[in-house]
Structures are given as structure tokens and as C-alpha cells.
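Repro case for the chain-ordering regression, as requested:
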Amino acid sequence: MPTRTELLDERAIARTLARMASEVVERSGGTDGLVLVGIQRRGVELAYRIKRLIDKVERTNIPCGKLDITLYRDDLQTIGPKPVVGETSLPDLDGRVVCIVDDVLYTGRTVRAALDECTDFGRPRRILLAVLVDRGGRELPIQADVVGVTVSPTPDERVDVLVSELDGRDVVEVARGGE
Amino acid sequence: MTATAGLGKDLVGLEKLTADQVRLILDTAEPFKEVSERQIKKVPALRGKTIVNLFFEASTRTRISFEFAEKRLSADTVNVAAVGSSVSKGETLVDTARNLEAMRIDMVVIRHGSSGAAQFLGDRINSNVINAGDGKHEHPTQALLDMLTLRDRFGKLDGLKVAIIGDVLHSRVARSNIWGLTKLGASVAVCGPASLLPRGIAEMGVTVLPRVEDAIQWADALNVLRLQLERMTAGFIPSLREYNRVFGVTTERLKRAPKDLLILHPGPMNRGVEIDSDVADGEHSVILPQVTNGVAVRMAVLYLLAGGRPGSSAALQGEER
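-- result from build under test --
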């Protein structure tokens, strides 16, 4: 059995996302040309939540897209192909301020792949990164612009982000052992 | 269904695959459809892989489709046609492939006139081998694209009735379709001149319908095979006109169908022989969507084979050193 330590509960996640939403707008210099792009799968749900939070305050309708980075991974040879590749559907990125949203930032390899994929779709004016959890352990020189919460787990600990759209409840927890 | 199950080293035919493996390919093909709709129709998944398209038989559609699939996955490709290569100087298939392998390739897509050529090659070289049609044996990617097209239109294959019309005897497309469709729960019937139906075909789990009218009454979809014109000189059928009169899929015949039938054809078509132009260009024809799906299915197969050598890729690398 893995031991689990709760990091954020439902209300804490809601508060964190609300702060992140206003920081995203602040860092992008307003909502003009802002586009949110979630990384499959939980990043997509978080991106849509941040979009709704921004839209409510700013009375906007921020374009929001989804990105599956499976085909841009650098480890096809070592881990083999993931059987089912998720959907990628992006709004126009040319000249926009693109904010990539993901649940956990760890090695930075997912973000590296997402940057490559975004630039194949257009030429954004600027790309920002917003993550709910920064857990350290970077293997590439990549950092987030907007961070929900920072933790320093050991390498054998895993940070799990559950979202109600996919998992039935909202929680961020650190799991150790098991699975 | 797990990722490690994969497809193994080669794709020789659908007969040897499990239903889960066939489903895996079709499901993996779905997101690849979208890649071909992008402005930059390219993803880096197979960057650095070298693929040889080794075509010992004429092919336009299949070769180009494979080539697009390879290029859209960022692989490097080389086309070798039998004419103008050392094959015409009498080199054997294995020698040709071994020489290519000595240049450090990763995959071979092979089309060959002899049944079993893909299996033969796959057993003898380390590279992944994909069968692009071997003799009268199988043409797995064609059947997969047919199945993907059927699944697009009907939502599922389980319980679907598909009639394959025409020269079943010489058709690797028919054979691969029968294996694949029956594995996923579809019912398959074949219909054609007795001289062009293989003996013992019923043992593959299909119904034999003697008249094309019966097939039209029964089916949800018709897969109309190309009548290979050289069959006429070989005496399998009396004449093309006669064939069209008895087995041609015509507007008049389709009018009497109890429902609208989906029309598939693997191409190239002989308009006015096995299929009328009105039918081929009609609203229920999915002949061009089949071609579009062909690229996605081939991308899926290449992608799954490229990483799908559980445990063996390290061993192979060790061998090369």
C-alpha cells in the first residue's frame, strides 16, 4: 500500500487556481492575445478552469486549446509507444501570448516537447508556463512563470494531481511506494 | 490491452494478430488523422529512423501512402523498385535486404509477388518488416484502412455485415479483410464468379453468396474488389462485359437494396467493369476517405512497430556494436 500525504484539498486547489489565473493575466500584460493551452490530460482540465476564472473576472472569452505531446517525446525508444495518443486541437497561435498549463512540472521534458509542438503550429509572441505543482528535479533548463505550489519530494515519491472531471475529486497528494 | 503488448517486430498479416492488437492499431490511427490536417503535417516521432520501401510489384497508392506516413512521422525514406535495382540482376530477396541492413536501416516496407515474402524476410533480418502486399496472401494495411473507414461511418465493426465482391481468389485484400473483420465481430460474405472464389473459403468463417443481388440485399457495406484484367486472358471469366452484366455493382442493382450501402473499393478501379462510375462517385462511396485513412493507419503501424520491440531493442543494439 502506498502512503499518501495530502498537499492540497478541493478548496485549496480552487484558491490556488484563482491566484494562478490572476497571475497569468498579470504576467501576460492583460488578456489581449492571450491563449491558454493545456497539456493532455490533466493540464487540459486545469487550463479550462483557469480560462473560466479569467473570463469571469475579465469578461473575456479566452481561446483555450489542448496539446498531446506523445509524438514529440524523446523517449519512444526507451519506453515504447504509448498506445493511445490524445487529441491535439489548438487555436491560432501566431502573434499570441500562449500560456501552457500542466499539472506537475518535474524533469521539464514534457514542457520541452510542448514548446516544440507549439512552434510547429505557429509563432507565438511569447510563451509562458503555468503549473499547479512544481516538484523540482529538472533535467532541462526550464522553469515555470506561474506556480501553484512548490514541493520537494524525494525521487521515489510521486505527486498525484486528481481532478474531478477525470478522477471524480480534486486533490493533490504525495504518494510513496506501491503501484 | 497494455502498451508492452504492442505488435511485435513485424506486421505480416492480420491472421496472426489478436483482436486487441487490431483494435490497438485502429485506435492509434485516430489521432494520426489530425496530424495530416495540420498546417505543418509532421511530427518528430520517428526522427532518425531510416525506412526502405522495397517494392517488387507496381504500386502507386500504397507506396505513396506509406511514403507520406513515413515522412509525416519524420523518418528518412528510400524507395527501391525492382526495376532498375540489382534485383533485375538476379540478386535474391534476402541478399537485397541484408545489403540494405548493412547500411543501418530500421524498417522495411515490402511489396512482393510471392505469398509469404514478408514473413520470409522478417524471419531473416533484424529490421521491422511491414507487409505492403505479398502475392495472394495478405495486404494488412489495406484491410486496416477499410476497417477504419467502416468504423468511422458505422461507429463500430461488431455485428456489421460486409460483402466482398469480385475476384476473391487472387485477392490479398479480401483475405486480410476477412481475418480482420471477423476478429472484430463483423460478418463477412464473399460474392463472385465460382472460378474466382477460392475452394474452402467458408472455412475462413465467411458466407458465400452466389449472386451480387443477394449480397446487396444482405450487406451494410460492399467492398468491391478490382477485377485484375489479366484474369480474363487466363480464362477465369468469359469477358469484361459479361462480368459487368452479372457481377457489376451498378446503380440499378443498388436501387433495389433495402438500405443505403456503403461502397468501398481498394483501387485502382475499372470503371464500368466491377463498379459503375455513378456508384464510385456517388454519395455512399467512401473510396477517397479510404485513401485518406490509409495514411493514418500506416502512421499508426509505423509508430507502434518503431517502439514496439519490448526487451529486444537493447539486444539488437548490442549486436551492432
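Ordering looks correct now. Residues 24 and 180 of chain B are 12 Å apart (CA to CA).
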